User: Fold this.
Amino acid sequence: MVAPTLRLERSLLKQEFDVIIALDEVGRGALAGPVAVGAAVIDATCSRRRVPDGLRDSKLITERRRPEMAARAAGWVPASAVGWASAAEVDASGIMCALGLAASRAVQAVVDQGAALDRAVVILDGNHDYLSRVHPDPLVVRTVIKGDRDCASVSAASVIAKVARDGLMAELHPQHPAYQWDRNKGYASAEHRRAIREQGLSPLHRASWSIADAPTLF
Assistant:
């Protein structure tokens, strides 16, 4: 398994940028719950530190090890945050706009911690810039396919967001235990779909999605 590096981040910091804000999303394909976007800030000082051992894209880290890895990732970078967009916002605006809202909120959260947007570049995992059309300020955004696999800053954002969202879904589970969100985190497991067919949709489901032929429960 190839470990992520800071090769791209160091190259960008040697050019015209003083700060990198790395972003990665979690929960895009879930049937219930919010989407989350993690943010991790890298500056020149952080870029000279050793990447935490075991840091990977969150999908490549076991669920048992993720909380410890997320804590180490957050301690490694000078600032980190998670931005959220609710299931209602997904329904109202669509998934891409909701991702942009969550990303913009994550960026604002690290700015509130002291990250400066002037001379900053955003590394956004994937091939689509869903941030620029939503964020109120002009940003330099660089999309990177497989950024969560290859860029250590994006890997940090990924695991931080994953642990935060999984924790939230586990907290929401007692409100709607039939869907077993403590196990499936809102994704389309067989048990989750079966509960939707039997119980209908909760207020935390993405009702605009064609996820079941059952009535909503509001």
About this structure: Confidence is low (pLDDT under 50) at residues 214-218.
